[in-house]
Amino acid sequence: MNQIKIGEFIASQRISHNLTQATLAEKLGITDRAVSKWERGKGLPDVSLMLDLCEILEITVNELLCGEVITMDNYNKELENNLLEMVKQKEESDKKLLRTEIMLCVATGIPCLITMAIAAIPSIQMVEWLRTVLIFIGLVPFLAAGFYAIKIEQTAGYYKCKKCGHRHVPTYNNVLWAPHVNRTRYMRCPKCNEKSWQKKVISKE
Fold first, then answer.
1. How do residues 109-133 score in pLDDT, each as one tens digit?
2. Residue 205, exposed/middle/buried by CB under 10 A (0-12, 13-18, 19+)?
3. What is the b/e burial string over 74-91, where b = at least 16 CB atoms within 10 angstroms of the residue's CB?
4. How far, in Å, are 1, 12, 68, 97 from residue 82 at the CA level?
5. Which of 160, 151, 157, 155 is nearest to 191 (CA)?
6. What is the rounded CA–CA span in Å between residue 67 and residue 47?
7. Residue in 103, 115, 112, 100 with CA at minimum distance from that of residue 141
8. Number of Cα atoms under 13 Å in the Cβ half of residue 4
């Protein structure tokens, strides 16, 4: 999707409806800076705002994502292209999230190991409360990052059932408590209701 084209389209439709950026922003419950960002091609409207935005500008979501008014002759073709592009962007976003998960664990895991190792060395002279503080300083960020990493693991991509091949997004608790090896987790499939080692995949199909 061409963000610059979409931004120019939003601006032209807004102007044709005699709306200022501030007025449009007020109707959507956002800031005029967000509208300005869209119109400059620096970002896209959040999915939760698209329907309201299209209703105000009297366009369809398909037209919004195309950045132009679409004739009925090529409406279905453009709709298909937009859906494919959205799937592609989600996959790219999920890949970035999974890379972020790795970096997050490394960035908090190494300091955690270092501080705990220092606290555990008997030859290093320090009062007991200081050892406890060191462990706390290393462990708390690592645990917080771990819970956030599990959230990424849950929402980015899908898990593929080894029994029936169904791909699904499990609940946070299922991911949290499931035995795992790297990104493969032992969970129950919501389709066949069988438990298996389900591998993380990016695409829905």
1. 999 899 888 888 887 788 888 888 8
2. exposed
3. eeeebbeebeeeeeeeee
4. 7, 21, 13, 22
5. 160
6. 16
7. 112
8. 0
Burial of 133 (0-12, 13-18, 19+ CB in 10 A): middle
Structure-token match 């998960």, residue found: 101
| Matching residue, tokens 């555990």 | 120
The pair of three-digit structure tokens given for residue 183, joined into one six-digit string: 């990104």
| Token pair for 32 | 């005029």
> CA-CA distance, 160 to 189, in Å (whole number)?
9
**Amino acid at the residue 169:** V
Place of tokens 């959507």: 28
pTM higher than 0.85, yes or no?
no
